[in-house]
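pasting for the record
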Amino acid sequence: MDKNKCYALADIDPALECDAQDNMGGIVPRIIFGYCEDVATWPDKPTASSGALQLDAAGALVGDVVMSNGCKAYSLSFTDNTGVFTIKPQGETGGESFLYELTVISAKVRKKILGFLNATKGRKLFIIVEDNNGLTYLMGDKGHGALLAADSDGATTGTAYTERSQTTMKFQYNCPRALVYEGDTENILTAAAGG
């Protein structure tokens, strides 16, 4: 195989694989988050050990997010059917990358949600998002975090009695590759011993 071919191309059938027939939109109404500085170990980008990467391997991170001693991740549950996650290509030819974007809505303006906005503004976060098809995505890495976007809609009381008082939060993360996270998502919610 040509060593300059990083990826092994393959046919992609328009029909879904037998174990992936279900295709439901949306994301699970719960994210896992924390400060990037509290992470001890990050998953690695896929690399080929011999020959070119197979397409499945080229689309997934390798390893887990591991928290530093005494640190843990947190969860935020938001209003059902209000979250959206996208991965968009960006950049000029020769400098392409991807923009991960997450938007979630929490019903009602609350002190705790405003406190969350205060705690996350300008801070590098990692955020783990799961879609309704069971795929999980990691926003954040060793060098870059997910950031609260300046163009988030923020908190609003609404104008009519029939509108919802709510807080809309948008986070963005720039990264070189579009990848799925197959690592641990629950053990990081418990503080590691020590520290």
